[in-house]
Design a protein that fits this description.
alpha+beta, 2 domains, six-stranded antiparallel β-barrel, 23% strand, rod-shaped
C-alpha cells in the first residue's frame, strides 16, 4: 500500500473514531437528560401529592382522650376521670425555622411516604428555589451589582470585607473584557488576511500573528484572574464555617462571562451551579432534623360534660363542666395523628330550674388524648374519591 492509500485508511479510521465518540457522547447526554427529566417528574409528583397542612407548622383536628383530676381550686376539685372529645389547633414552631425543602421532606416522611419519594419532593422544592435564586443572581449581575451586594442581599450573615475579594472580582471582569477585545481584533485580522492583495499579504499575516499572540495572552490572564477570584471566594468560605455562597456567586459570574462559548458545556455548568445552590437547602444530612419538628403546643376546648366534683367542704355532687380553654404540649409521630397532654380550665355549674346555670366554680383538670389531624381527613377523602 502506497503512502496515499495508508493516509486514506488512517483518515477513515480517525473519522470513524470521531463519529463513534460523537454517538457515544450524544447517547450519554440523552441518558442524562432522560434521568434528569424522570427525577424532576418524580419530584413534581411527590410535591403535588404532599400538599399537607402540616408543612406550614400548623394543623387542626379532633381528639378523644381521658380527663382526670389534678387538684383543687378554692376547694373545688374533680373526683372522677372520664372520656372527652376536644377540637384543637396545634402549632409546631420547629417548622417555622426550617427551609422549605426540609419541611417538604419531613411532612412527606410523616405522611408514610417512601424515603425516595420524600427525598424527591424535598429536592424538587430545593431545585425550584435554586433556579429562581440563580436567575436572580444573573439579573443582579447584569444590572451591575457587585458580589458583595449580592451576598449582602442573600444573607444577613454575609458581611464581607470588600478588600481582596472585591479586587479579584474586578480583575476577573477586566480580564474578560480584554479577552473579548482581543478576540474581536483577531476576527478583524483574519478578515484582513483573506481580503489582502498579494503585496499586503505579509503585513496582514504579521498583524494576524500579533493579534493571536495578544488573544492568547489575554486568555492566560483570564485563567489567572479566574483562579485568583475563586481562591478569594474559597478563602472567605473557609474562614466562615465553610459558607459556600461566595464561591457559588463567583462561579455564577464566571458562567455569565462565557469566555469559551461552548453552549453544551455551558448548559451543563448552569445545571451544576443550580444543583450546588439546591444542595444548600436539601441534602441527605438533613434527614435527621425531622424529629425536632414533631414537638409543639396546642390550644383547644374540650366539649361540655357531666362530672363528679367536691365543692367547698360539702359532699360529692354531679355538675356540668363547661370548659373555657385547653392547652398543653403535643407530639405528632406523623402528619395524621397527634398525641396531646395538657390541662383544661372551666366552670362547673348547677343547672337551674329554667335551664340557667348557677353557682359556677372554677375547675382545673388534666387531659391526655390522641387526635386525628386535618391531613388525616384529607387523606381519607382523597382515598374515597379514588375508589371506583
Amino acid at each position: 500500500m502506497d503512502q496515499a492509500g495508508l493516509k486514506a485508511v488512517i483518515d477513515a479510521q480517525a473519522q470513524a473514531l470521531l463519529e463513534a465518540e460523537a454517538k457515544a457522547s450524544a447517547a450519554k447526554a440523552k441518558q442524562e437528560s432522560t434521568e434528569a427529566q424522570n427525577q424532576a417528574a418524580a419530584g413534581a409528583k411527590a410535591v403535588a401529592e404532599n400538599a399537607k397542612l402540616l408543612k406550614s407548622g400548623v394543623t387542626a383536628g379532633v381528639s378523644a382522650g381521658i380527663q382526670f383530676p389534678i387538684g383543687s381550686t378554692k376547694g373545688t376539685s374533680l373526683q372522677n376521670a372520664g372520656f372527652v372529645a376536644m377540637p384543637y389547633v396545634a402549632f409546631f414552631p420547629g417548622y417555622w425555622k426550617r427551609s422549605e425543602a426540609v419541611r417538604e421532606y419531613c411532612a412527606s416522611e410523616w405522611g408514610g411516604g417512601s424515603e425516595s419519594d420524600a427525598s424527591a419532593a424535598a429536592m424538587e422544592v430545593a431545585r425550584r428555589k435554586a433556579t429562581l435564586k440563580f436567575n436572580t443572581f444573573i439579573s443582579a449581575m447584569n444590572a451591575g451589582a457587585t458580589d458583595l451586594q449580592i451576598l449582602d442581599w442573600e444573607s444577613s450573615r454575609m458581611r464581607m470585607d470588600g478588600g481582596q475579594y472585591q479586587k479579584t472580582k474586578e480583575d476577573f471582569v477586566k480580564s474578560v473584557d480584554a479577552y473579548r477585545r482581543a478576540s474581536e481584533k483577531i476576527t478583524l485580522a483574519s478578515k484582513t488576511v483573506a481580503e489582502a492583495s498579494a503585496d499586503g499579504k505579509a503585513a496582514a499575516l504579521t498583524a494576524f500573528s500579533n493579534a493571536r499572540t495578544e488573544r492568547d495572552a489575554a486568555r492566560g490572564a483570564v485563567d489567572a484572574a479566574q483562579e485568583a477570584y475563586l481562591a478569594a471566594a474559597r478563602l472567605y468560605r473557609s474562614s466562615r464555617a465553610e459558607e459556600p455562597m461566595p464561591a457559588i456567586v463567583a462561579y455564577t459570574r464566571i458562567w455569565l462571562a462565557d469566555v469559551d462559548g461552548e453552549s453544551g458545556n455551558r448548559e451543563a455548568r448552569k445545571k451544576d451551579i443550580i444543583q450546588w445552590i439546591a444542595d444548600q437547602d436539601w441534602n441527605s444530612t438533613l434527614r435527621g432534623k425531622c424529629f425536632a419538628l414533631k414537638w409543639g403546643a396546642y390550644l383547644g376546648r374540650t366539649l361540655n360534660n357531666e362530672v363528679r366534683v367536691r365543692v367547698g367542704g360539702g359532699g360529692i355532687e354531679k355538675r356540668n363542666y363547661v370548659p373555657q380553654l385547653s392547652f398543653g404540649a403535643t407530639f405528632a409521630p406523623n402528619a395524621y395523628v397527634s398525641v396531646l397532654a395538657g390541662v383544661t380550665v372551666g366552670n362547673v355549674e348547677v343547672q337551674g330550674e329554667e335551664g340557667t346555670p348557677r353557682d359556677p366554680r372554677t375547675l382545673w383538670s388534666g387531659n391526655v388524648s390522641v387526635g386525628g389531624n386535618f391531613d388525616l381527613a384529607a387523606a381519607l377523602l382523597k382515598g374515597a374519591q379514588s375508589l371506583p
